Backbone:
């Protein structure tokens, strides 16, 4: 399944909210409530609730987007680790259970945030706009280098 540059450019959207927003492309979805600094969300454009509701080429396309988002995150933020996960269904923690999506969360040693536990408050060390700018700049470099051209065909 080939993806257009416009689709890929919008595919690894930074999480912004738990309410579905209008798509920027067939292979994107954006959300609002930031879970962690640099958190990315990847989803196919057609909403389906479970992984098995997508056919094998669509599941392969989803994983290709996760690969791309992982490389984007590693290049832009250089985290020491990345949590990658899918929460299928509300009972599993899915904020948008009708549209399966994958989360990528950058991690660093010792980044546990006690403020969430103690004060029910999230501390975000960088502004959303700053993070988005870092991702856009890195995505521009990745596209210029052509490393993902096989997905853009």
Residues:
């Amino acid at each position: 399944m080939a993806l257009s540059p416009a689709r890929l450019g919008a595919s690894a959207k930074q999480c912004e909210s738990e309410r579905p927003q209008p798509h920027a492309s067939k292979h994107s979805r954006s959300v609002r409530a930031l879970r962690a600094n640099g958190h990315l969300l990847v989803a196919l454009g057609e909403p389906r609730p479970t992984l098995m509701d997508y056919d094998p080429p669509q599941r392969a396309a989803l994983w290709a987007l996760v690969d791309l988002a992982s490389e984007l995150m590693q290049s832009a933020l250089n985290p020491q680790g990345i949590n990658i996960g899918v929460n299928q269904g509300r009972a599993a923690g899915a904020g948008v259970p009708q549209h399966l999506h994958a989360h990528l969360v950058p991690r660093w040693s010792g980044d546990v945030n006690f403020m969430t536990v103690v004060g029910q408050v999230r501390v975000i060390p960088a502004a959303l706009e700053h993070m988005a700018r870092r991702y856009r700049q890195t995505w521009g470099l990745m596209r210029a280098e052509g490393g993902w051209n096989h997905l853009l065909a």
In short: Residues 5-144 form a domain with the HIT family, subunit A fold (CATH 3.30.428.10). Helices lie at 5-11, 56-77, 114-119, 128-145, 149-152. The longest strand covers residues 81-86.
